[in-house]
Design a protein that fits this description.
CATH topology of the largest domain: AhpD-like
Structural class: mainly alpha
Order of helices and strands: HHHHHH
Radius of gyration: 14 Å
Low-confidence stretches: none
Shape: globular
Mean pLDDT: 91
Number of helices: 6
Number of domains: 2
Distance between the termini: 24 Å
Number of strands: 0
CATH superfamily of the largest domain: AhpD-like
């Protein structure tokens, strides 16, 4: 994560250094590296869990990670819309606002993604 966007674990590290260490190993060093799912798929699954569980502090970092792992803004938008029916409209609307604050407008695209998708 850039210094402009500290990761949730970096924010937690001063008070719970062991928790931050456990996030790094085994979560990111082992679980995210398992061959059964791509990092892209793991990102989409993680974002979905954070949306329906309403974890607004964690969502921005994982939205950025999802983009970095190849999930498009259009796919994230569709996932949030789909999750409204399974996780509830309030969670989806809140996630949509967080996604907009984190990633900008849907039609703005991102590096490597054409506008609108």
């Amino acid at each position: 994560m850039s210094s402009n966007h500290p990761s949730p674990r970096d924010v937690a590290r001063p008070f719970t250094p062991e928790l931050s260490a456990l996030i790094e190993d085994p979560l990111f060093s082992r679980v995210w590296e398992r061959p059964g799912l791509s990092k892209r798929d793991r990102s989409l699954i993680t974002v979905a869990a954070l949306v329906v569980l309403y974890r607004p502090e964690q969502l921005p970092a994982h939205l950025r990670m999802a983009i970095a792992n190849g999930v498009s803004k259009t796919e994230l938008s569709e996932a949030i819309t789909h999750l409204a029916f399974y996780g509830g409209y309030p969670a989806a609307v809140s996630a949509s606002g967080i996604a907009h604050e984190t990633l900008g407008n849907l039609d703005d695209g991102h590096p490597g993604e054409p506008a609108g998708g």
